[in-house]
Amino acid sequence: MSIAKVLGIETEYGIISLGVDSSPVTSSSLLINSYVSRFDSTIGWDFVAEKPGADARGFSLDDVFPQDIEMNMVNTVLTNGARYYVDHAHPEVSTPECRTASEAVLFDRAGEEIIRQSMLAAKRVLPDGAELVAYKNNSDGKGNSYGCHENYLLSRAVPFGEMAALITTHFVTRQIFCGAGKVGSEFEGMPNNSVPFQLSQRADFFEEEIGLETTLKRPIINTRDEPHCDPTKYRRLHVIVGDANMSEVATFLKLGTTAILLSMIEDEQFEDDLVLATPVSAIRQVSHDPTLKQKILLDSGKTYTALNLQEILCERAEKYADRFGLESVGEEDGKLILSRWREALEGLRQDPSTMSHVIDWVAKKRIVDGIAERYELRANDPRLKAIDLQYHDMRAEKCLALRAGLETMTNAEEVARATTTPPETTRAYFRGMCLKKWPADVVAANWDSVVFDIGRDPLRRVPMMEPLRGTRELTERLLAQSSTPAELVAALGDQVSPSNFKPTN
Questions:
Q1: Is 282 in the same domain as 428?
Q2: Domain endpoint, select from 395, 417, 439
Q3: Which pLDDT tens digit goes with each residue over 433-492?
Q4: What is the DSSP string of 320-373?
Q5: Average pLDDT of the residues in 286-295
Q6: Judgement on whether residues 346 and 486 belong to the same structural domain of the protein
Q7: At what angle do helices 306-324 and 248-266 cross, to 10 degrees?
Q8: How many other β-carbons are positioned within 10 Å of the β-carbon of residue 284?
Q9: DSSP class per residue in 83-115
Q10: Is the pLDDT score of 286 beyond 90?
């Protein structure tokens, strides 16, 4: 039986400095520090369990990897259970672990709000007229791309190679409803005006079917084997192939459809007849064709459009739901995922322009085409690329996505609460509430543990190896009954271990 699809999103934001000479690294650090300095205590990230070189294919490159620069940069944990840090010259927000796709959408939106608050806080400490501007996009237009990564809890029992072979078709074709849209192409060797508009911001940057890298020779399937939980039971599928979405519905579909299909793989209900012949070239084929008519070749020799393939996957997911249920993704959430998935595909089949309220690339294309027609601009006009970027501008008064009529799934009150309060349905609840209750006594935290200073040596580490423990239901009473971390540690007894944690900065 498939396991619960605990999931989350890591979003790197583009950043520029206006009115002040500042490198991206410095700007990112200032942005984050301006936000976290408002709090009485800043909780650092514990890197003890980080193993970025561990490969799902059965080996590790950790010994040959240099120390990651992010270990020496600002890196903090927030009271909503999220991680906020500098990653390779970008500010990055990682949502807390979420039990459903709709919950992840809410905390992704909370991440956007944290970025907006950070920009306002930074503006107050910069010279008059200067500001830092963040963009929720995936490319600087100069050949550099930065990621929006997804994470899904999987059973360790599923052979990684089998899962990779089956899910690749979905990753290549799902961009028809979750692509963020892009003016032009950055694929090496392609004339600038040969692709006036494409579905995905990331498609041009993928070079391999499968691999460990995330910044060079990007693979469609990433093999990083860093579960952040019990490695004998679980793996974490780290997905780097997606765009950063402004549409909440697109984010919901991106996460939800993938979660259902992964559950189908776990339940051995995913047929192997849709394997692509050449996934790397296919991902660009699909992205470069806003007409959705380009056919791609399967291993079997058959050809289908991306829309055809998504329709087949959706139909099979519907049959799976009828037979097995959707508890792994949350029954109510699952029903909505299937409904919205079907609705999006039918809309794209009928007329893509009718989906401008939910699909980013359609909404963006409508804006770009309107500007181009109004001012008689050619496809490669730099003003159109500026419009593309402005769609993702985190300044509310500048953001074109906020004016595009996109449907929302959250409200302002929920989002505001989610910036400081963790989800209740995963271990993120325990992490976030400990930070809220004892900010001066939590020394560090990461996904699978919290380190406390209980007033005497050594420090104490509370492990959280089960993503669905540490929920409100399981820990609210324990936290309420513990007036100090020492009382909490005593109540947990043998579950707590000594820690030799040492700050890295």
A1: no
A2: 417
A3: 999 999 999 999 999 999 999 988 899 999 999 999 999 999 999 999 999 999 999 999
A4: HHHHH-SGGG-HHHHHHHHHHHHHHHHHHHH-GGGGTTT-HHHHHHHHHHHHHH
A5: 97
A6: no
A7: 60
A8: 20
A9: EEEEETTEEEEEPPPBSSHHHHHHHHHHHHHHH
A10: yes
Residues 401 and 304 in one domain: yes
Signed CA dihedral, 238, 242, 244, 246: sign only: negative
CA-closest candidate to residue 273, choices 312, 306, 311: 312
Q: Can you read off the two tokens belonging to residue 68?
A: 């990651």
Q: d(Cα 99, Cα 424) in Å, to the nearest integer?
A: 9
Residue 1 lies in a domain: no
The domain in which residue 128 lies consists of 7-417
Angle between helical axes of 331-350 and 306-324 (0-180°, round to 10): 150
- The residue whose two tokens read 């009271």 is 79
Most confident of 30-39, 44-53, 61-70: 30-39
Question: Are 457 and 412 part of one and the same domain?
Answer: no
Residue 395 lies in a domain: yes
**Residues noted as catalytic:** 87
Confidence of residue 500 (pLDDT cuts 50, 70, 90): low
Two tokens at 323?
A: 């037979």
Tokens at 25, concatenated: 């690294």
d(CA 347, CA 354): 6
Q: Is 371 exposed, middle or buried (0-12, 13-18, 19+ CB in 10 A)?
A: middle
Counting every residue, how long is the chain?
505
Residue 355 lies in a domain: yes
Do 233 and 380 sit in the same domain of this protein? yes
**Domain CATH number, residue 248:** 3.30.590
Q: What is the pLDDT of residue 505?
A: 46
Residues 149 and 287 in one domain: yes
Residue 462's H or E segment, with its range, is strand 459-463
